[in-house]
Specification:
- The chain is an alpha/beta fold.
- The protein is built from ten helices and eight strands.
- The protein has an eight-stranded mixed sheet with strand order 1-2-4-3-5-6-7-8, with helices on both faces.
- Helix 1 links the parallel strand 3 (about 45-50) and strand 4.
- Helix 2 (about 100-115) crosses helix 3 (about 130-140) and helix 4 crosses helix 7.
- The longest helix is centred in the middle third of the chain and has 20 residues, at about 170-190.
- It is globular.
- It starts with 14 loop residues before the first strand and ends in an 11-residue tail after the last helix.
Length: about 325
C-alpha cells in the first residue's frame, strides 16, 4: 500500500515539500503542497507551476509526482486538493463544480504570486485529466497563467453534456436531467447528498470494460490508492457541468502557449485533439508512444517531464 503518510510515492532527497493552505475566492480553505528544490535560494525569484489533479484525484497521487519532478528541474511547484474534496474545505463533501474547480487554479496563482521567491511573470500550469479542462478554462480569463499544459485531458463538461464520444441522445440527456432534478428534492430534505454509485475501491476483473479496468488498476490498488480519492461526486453536481461549457473561449489563451500531452493509446485522446484544433497558436501536440491514459498519472519512465519544463513555441499537430 502507499507509504505511511499516504503519498503514493517517496519524497526525493533533493526536494523539500511543505503543507500550505490559503483561501479561494469563495472563502474555501484549500489544502496544498508546495515543492521546492532542497538547495532553494529564497532571495531569488523562481519560475512556478500549478499542478491540478485528475477528476477524482488528490494531491498525494499523480500531481505530487509531477510537482516533485518539476522541483527537481528548478521550479516552485504547487499542487492542491480541489474545493470540497481531499483535505480542502467546503460542505457538502465531494461536490464538484465547473466554476469552483476553475477558480481553484486562479486561487493557486494568487498564492504563488504573493510569495516573494516566485516570479509573477513566470507562473504556468499543468492540468491532468479533468484538471486539463479546468486549467484551460482558467487560462481563458486569468492572464497571469503564462503557459499551460494538459496531460491526457478530459473535458468534463463535454463528457457530461454530450456523453462518451458525444454519443448522448437528447432523450437520454433529458432523462438524466429529470433524475438529477428528483435527486435535488431528496438531497434538500435529507442530510447528506447522494454520491455517484461507482467509487474507489473500484471492483474489476477480466470482464470489466477496458476503461473501467484502467482506472481500477490505479485507484483501487497499492499503485494509486488514497483514502481521500473516492472517485465519487454528488449526483447533482452533473447538472452544472451539463449547462456550462469549459472551453468556449480557448482561442483567447493565445499568444500564451499551450502544450497538449496525450498517450498514444489513451482513450481520452479525442478531447485533446479537438481542443488543439480550437486553440490558437502557439500550440503543440505531443504524443507519448506506447502510453495509455492512466499511464501518464504516475509512470515516470513515460511522463515527458523535460517537455513539460520548456515553454512550447512550435506547432506540433496531432499525428
Amino acid at each position: 500500500m502507499p507509504v505511511p503518510d499516504n503519498y503514493i510515492f517517496d519524497l526525493d532527497e533533493n526536494v523539500a515539500r511543505m503543507s500550505v493552505s490559503y483561501q479561494n475566492r469563495f472563502g474555501i480553505t484549500i489544502a496544498a503542497d508546495l515543492y521546492r528544490p532542497k538547495n532553494f535560494d529564497e532571495s531569488q525569484q523562481h519560475k512556478a507551476v500549478v499542478v491540478g489533479a485528475p477528476y477524482g484525484g488528490v494531491k498525494e497521487q499523480g500531481p505530487g509526482i509531477y510537482a516533485q519532478n518539476l522541483a527537481l528541474r528548478g521550479f516552485v511547484a504547487l499542487t492542491f486538493d480541489p474545493s470540497y474534496n481531499g483535505y480542502s474545505g467546503g460542505e457538502p463533501r465531494h461536490l464538484s463544480s465547473p466554476e469552483l474547480f476553475v477558480e481553484d487554479f486562479s486561487a493557486a496563482v494568487d498564492y504563488l504570486g504573493t510569495r516573494p521567491f516566485v516570479d509573477r511573470e513566470g507562473i504556468g500550469g499543468i492540468g491532468m485529466c479533468g484538471s486539463g479542462g479546468f486549467l484551460l478554462s482558467a487560462a481563458q480569463v486569468d492572464r497571469r497563467l503564462k503557459a499551460v499544459a494538459t496531460v491526457v485531458m478530459y473535458d468534463i463538461s463535454r463528457a457530461a453534456s454530450k456523453g462518451w464520444q458525444d454519443s448522448l441522445t437528447d432523450e437520454a440527456r433529458n432523462g438524466m436531467l429529470d433524475a438529477i432534478a428528483q435527486q435535488r428534492y431528496v438531497d434538500f430534505e435529507g442530510y447528506a447528498p447522494a454520491l455517484t454509485p461507482r467509487g474507489a475501491p473500484i471492483g474489476f476483473d477480466d470482464t470489466t470494460d477496458p476503461i473501467g479496468r484502467e482506472f481500477g488498476e490505479f485507484y483501487s490498488t497499492p499503485r494509486g490508492y488514497h483514502p481521500n480519492s473516492i472517485t465519487q461526486f454528488t449526483v447533482t453536481s452533473m447538472m452544472s457541468f451539463m449547462n456550462f461549457p469549459l472551453l468556449t473561449h480557448i482561442e483567447t489563451i493565445s499568444p500564451r502557449p499551450i502544450l497538449f500531452v496525450v498517450g498514444e493509446h489513451a482513450h481520452s485522446r479525442y478531447f485533446s485533439e479537438d481542443a488543439y484544433e480550437l486553440a490558437a497558436e502557439p500550440k503543440e501536440f505531443h504524443v507519448v508512444p506506447n502510453a495509455g491514459h492512466v499511464d501518464l498519472y504516475d509512470r515516470t519512465d513515460l511522463i515527458p517531464f523535460d517537455k513539460l519544463s520548456v515553454t512550447p513555441t512550435t506547432t506540433g499537430a496531432p499525428t
